[in-house]
Write a structure and sequence with these properties.
Layout: E1 6-11, E2 14-19, H1 30-45, E3 51-56, E4 61-63, H2 68-71, H3 76-94, E5 100-104, E6 107-109, H4 111-118, E7 121-125, E8 129-131, H5 145-153, H6 155-164, E9 168-169, H7 170-175, E10 181-183, H8 188-200, H9 204-216, H10 222-236, H11 240-250
Parallel strand pairs: 2-3, 3-5, 4-6, 5-7, 6-8, 7-10
Antiparallel strand pairs: 1-2, 8-9
Helix pairs in contact: 1-3, 4-5, 5-6, 9-10
Bound molecules: octanoyl-coenzyme A.
């Protein structure tokens, strides 16, 4: 399948997926979500891909939300179905087993902010604007925004942002922990690629377990989460990359990880 609403490029171990509906600020319609699901499944199984970047076409928007043309005609049953289908796609991002960087190049609103929150790392252009404006449409977030935003920035801030629907700039987003890094808009993709290249050269199995432990741990009781971490720690000891990483350190050279 060749996606029509997404651009997919590969460069070494890094795949860049660009939401490509700039006329509607890259709003997510059903076609885009279906294509994204398929692209993510392909990338998950592609061992040559070690890191993924998600970004938006043009310089105005990352993703300005779900497509309001579709929302305007939804029914109770289609609304629930679309929300759940979208939640599954975002869960695929979160559980892809490799880091996914959101390179937020402009508006990340509603479903766009929710999508960014499912990513492993969020880097924003200084011109980016983020928010959950669903309340202004008489809606609530439907791609798990009420849950991920509260987990990322705390319940109080999430409540205020979702109830007011206000947009925040990149600096405020960094201050509250919604994004981790803000860079000049002109260098966003260079910075994202630099970070992606660094992650792509790391030990993939260890990275997969770090993502799993950090994401799943908070859903468990603390002692269980620690046992989970210890089990994953034990599992990485079975990898050639662990032997290579420790050996390279002792031999004072750079490790060459193979993913085995
Ligand atoms: N859906 C459809 N079209 C959109 C969207 C959108 N989300 N956002 C922008 N567009 C379109 C505009 O209609 C406009 O089209 P046209 O040129 O034909 O008039 C074009 O993109 C350019 O937009 P603007 O002219 O409005 O550009 P501005 O610079 O004036 O404003 C904004 C930019 C502030 C981003 C403005 O476009 C805006 O407010 N957009 C809507 C943002 C929004 O409310 N997003 C949340 C949507 S709800 C949601 O995401 C719920 C997610 C969970 C859904 C679960 C079930 C599916």
């Amino acid at each position: 399948m060749v996606p029509e609403t997404l651009l997919v490029e590969r460069d070494g171990g890094v795949a860049t997926v660009t939401f490509n509906r700039p006329k509607v600020l890259n709003a997510l319609n059903t076609q885009t979500m279906n294509e994204l699901r398929q692209v993510l499944l392909d990338l998950r199984h592609d061992e040559g891909v070690r890191c993924v970047i998600l970004t938006g076409a043009g310089d105005k928007a990352f993703v300005a939300g779900a497509d309001i043309n579709e929302l305007a005609v939804q029914t109770p049953t289609s609304g629930k179905q679309h929300a759940m289908a979208g939640q599954h796609v975002l869960e695929l991002i979160e559980t892809l087993g490799k880091p996914v960087i959101a390179a937020i190049n402009g508006y990340a609103l509603g479903g766009g902010c929710e999508l960014a929150m499912a990513c492993t790392i969020r880097m924003a252009a200084d011109t980016a604007k983020l928010g959950q404006p669903e309340i202004n449409l008489g809606l609530i977030p439907g791609y798990a925004g009420t849950q991920r935003l509260a987990r990322l920035v705390g319940r109080g801030r999430a409540m205020e942002l979702i109830l007011t629907g206000r947009q925040i700039g990149a600096d405020e987003a960094r201050q509250i922990g919604l994004v981790t890094q803000v860079v000049p808009a002109a260098s966003l993709m260079d910075e994202a690629r630099k970070l992606a290249g660094r992650l792509a050269a790391s030990a993939p199995v260890a990275m997969r377990y770090i993502i799993e432990a950090v994401n799943r741990g908070p859903e468990m009781a603390f002692p269980d989460a620690c046992v989970f971490e210890a089990t994953l720690f034990g599992l990485v000891a079975s990898t050639e990359d662990m032997r290579e990483g420790t050996k390279a350190f002792l031999e004072k050279r750079k490790a060459a990880f193979t993913g085995k």
